[in-house]
Target: Alpha-amylase
Amino acid sequence: MDKVKRFFLNVLVIITLILLLLTGCVKQVDENSGEIITSTSIVKGEWAQAYFRGTPNNWGTTLMQKVAPNTWEIIITFNNGDGYGSPRFKIDHYGDWSESYPASDYVVEPYTTYKITFYDDTHYIDVKKYTSPINGVMLQAFQWYLPEYDENTQRGLWVELSEKMSDFASMGITALWMPPAYKGQAGKSDVGYGVYDMYDLGEFNQKGSIATKYGTKDQYLNVVSSAHLYNLQVYADVVFNHRMGADATEWVNATKVSWNDRNLELENREIEAWTVFDFPGRANKYSDFKWRWYYFDGVDWDQSTQESAIFRFNGIGKEWDWEVDTENANYDYLMGADLDMEHPDVVQELKNWGKWYVDFTNVDGFRLDAVKHIKFDFFNDWLDYMRNTTGKELFTVGEYWSTDINKLNNYITKTEGRMSLFDVPLHQHFHDASNAGGYYDMRNIFNGTLVQSNPVKAVTFVENHDTQPGQSLSSSVEDWFKPLAYAMILLRKDGYPCVFYGDMYGAPNITAQYEIIKKLIEARKLYAYGDQYDYLDHWDIIGWTRLGDLEHPKVMAVILTDGPGGSKWMYVGKKNAKFVDYLGNRSDEVWSNSDGWAEFKVNGGSVSVWVEQ
Model:
């Protein structure tokens, strides 16, 4: 019997070894502590990719970043299970569940950010709470003059962005602000702000095309999925102020008002208004809501007389919405058929659309267009509804176009911090400095800006689709100054920076500066951490240092000038440390002294980012 037992025992051992060789390391991980219980020394070859799957991405696949041989990493925030029970995750090899680790889900704490490192040779999973700030960078992923979608090649912006996603993620971009994805009045020629049908994402033959300017519905859904695969968020551009390109007219009693004082009434009469929106090409798919005159406050065209003027509709409850911006006495009306945000059916329809859109596309937040023309408390209700019904954080930034910092802060107060705002005053300073021929007082570059007075709610930017040459708010920043401006939004501790697609890849009268902007985004990702010491004390040459943190211990010193070159002594907190210019604008080295100070240099009209070696 002993021989028989030994025989079967040896067979069992051989079978076990064969299974181990076929499957690689076998490991059990305690689902609460994450500690390895058992493991073997047998390893597998290096993986081509590693995917994170867990409650934050609804158990979909998100690519982890390869940071070293056999080493994959992701920094991700867990909420309270996102509807899947306790927050937890696995690491997936092929993205099809055929091989994933650990054997039992790795359970983590809710509402916590973790840095997860996976070693594909041993299958060891290292999970640490991540306390450093995540240096997010938003990319405005379009510019005004992009080519239209090509029906023959089936290529447009959505395809182009999908192909660039890996590059975006590797350099340090964390979110994409996409252009309006729905059908505009000019069909395939519409940039997206002449909104016709918000349920048509390039699916229906309306306004002369199926596709939008950027592509088809399926291509849009694919680019959102591609962004999520690379752990990038997507912010949808939402235009609620107006509708354009109506299907038919109807007669409406209206009052003509002054262009410069919307409260000044000039004439009352019947007008023929383009206010009938039936969306026949969509045939009630997704929604059967039809727009009529009583859902709007006014228009700027009388078809019967061919007159262009501002007409406010008359009727029960019909008046300009309030509170809005006070320019022109009341700036409710901007263009097209102006939505009546006091009408309960309008409010409910915009809620219905928002819930449908987030569920249908899986976007992560919003850029809200023209918020100063919409009653200030509307978005309080709408955003609360959206966040409660979708269960998503839904980061939101509003476009309140004003250089008056008091107006911006007032809006943030009235909306109780529910959204951030673009820092228009800072953009204006960049524009002014770039056109001052070196005579701008750089000591004042941040004075009167949102990033100075309300940094948590400031989205900083250099250029956008409205400011580029030839547009309605044209205030372009000169090409030579853009590296300086991008250093000021990307490498400082305050503000959420937004990079412009046209600045990276070029646009009419804008030079592509992909390499320098990519370097600055990388520098933000690698070095822009910890305490900041400012040296904004010279008419031309300003600078600051970032001393790093536990996760990112290397020090960075930034120096720039709009005039002649020079130098500046700045504190770096480390003795006898060597620094080189990450941008390569200077080839020399800088060494700190025994007190932790160093003299950093910069070329004329340039910027240098000195990083510790």
Confidence is low (pLDDT under 50) at residues 17-43. The first strand starts at residue 28 and ends at 29.
